[in-house]
Amino acid sequence: WGTCILRIEHHIPHHLLILLSYFSILIFIIVERFKLLGLSMALALPVAHTSSSSSSSSSSSLLSRNSKPFPNFRTTHLNFGSQRRIHTVTPLLRSLKCLQSFSKDVKASPFSVSAIASSSQTTELVPHRLQRLVKEFKSLTVPIDRLKWVLHYASLIPPMAETSRTESNRVMGCTARVWLEAELGQDGKMRFWADSDSDVSKGMCSCLIQVLDEASPEEVMEMKTEDLAELNVGLLSGERSRVNTWHNVLVSMQKKTRRLVAEREGTAPTFEPFPSLVLTANGIEAKGSFAEAQAKYLFPEESRVQELVNVLKEKKIGVVAHFYMDPEVQGVLTAAQKHWPHISISDSLVMADSAVAMAKAGCQFVTVLGVDFMSENVRAILDQAGFEEVGVYRMSDETIGCSLADAASAPAYLNYLEAASLSPPSLHVVYINTSLETKAFAHELVPTITCTSSNVVQTILQAFAQMPELNVWYGPDSYMGANIVKLFQQMTLMTDEEITNIHPKHNLSSIKSLLPRLHYFQVTFGFSCLWQYSSVKRIFA
To answer: Where in the cell is it found (predicted)?
Structure first.
């Protein structure tokens, strides 16, 4: 418009207007580039207290300007028959499509990368590093922006060497595979390296490394999971949630630190008792601090329980909750079951069946206490059973993601499915911890059946019994896949009678013959590997 006005009012020649337009665009690009560099410096480099507020505001405004509009997460009522159902079925998948461009834009700044690489070399105290990280995430008020920033951090740590991605370096308890390596330097400072086949988990590891790399062992041991609650990524209201990556990686860092210090001092490392609840004639005995915290939730306050029961009865609400819910929630729900029978705590697959039973008993609404794919599954099964009018509600306005479900929508898993489609006859056995969209897309490529941990072995055995020449492709849970193959490998050491007791249509010969055609999903450096029987035999022999 400016060039048009100049031409009209001042009769500037056309070729000069073109040059002026190019010059204006160039100036705009330079200005925007400096804004982006300014954001990277503000977020990645230590800043003075006088400029922290301005940097936070600039980062927030830039992120909100670059973000595309996303579905309104306050639309939590799941109804596949309504116009809004697309907002509740695929918000995370849609949002993730925008993440790559964001990460690339931020990573393009040399300032952020160099700052991350050198931040551990400063003498900045751990509390200050943590506070700086908290400020970064607090400036991002939209949940998807916080997730984007986690993925940005994931891009800043290099992949581990294959020699370091070993079982001894695995972080136990995480759904995704996470590896952690630690070293106690001659200067008495801790050094950490981490990697994961999930970008979200990798980003969380990167954040922890930013805080604790080159910290003293004492500083590492003083850190608590609750200190990370303000990052507001993966933690709900400061509580320790299920299979929490923050908690599991931090605990692994502390265990490795304790062991390395003990080795240097020539003493045996001290550990807390294994967390357990021991049932005795005199009651329950808790061992370990975590178990003690859980034990107190077994006897919730009666007034809170009665308050919940009154609401559930009045509104005719059923509750389906997953086993992994926090013990405080499970304690209240278990106590409420005595007064309101339409409460169920179970695994993912049973949750939907329980919801149908509640609908048959007259419940008008079902609340799902679990991650998003569980809500989707409950909604779908209720629709299939003819209860479209029963409302299904999630437990939060925000996205409640699952790293395993995310992994199933990654390109590596799609490549795995395409390979399966080229080897007919094939059956894709998919773990229930995946979205409906993933299941539907997979079924377009390969006949797909859903399973959970309680029925996966029988599902695979029955499939091979019906079609002996079948190829079975299991995924995306690599842990379960490895365990399944190991179990079938051990079955080759059993007698025909013992195998028949597990499944009447199988014997030693059939188990040996199916092993070369049983595949499971694994990712190594971003490429899917199809582990055949010969490879499995070398691993588990």
So the answer is: Plastid, Chloroplast
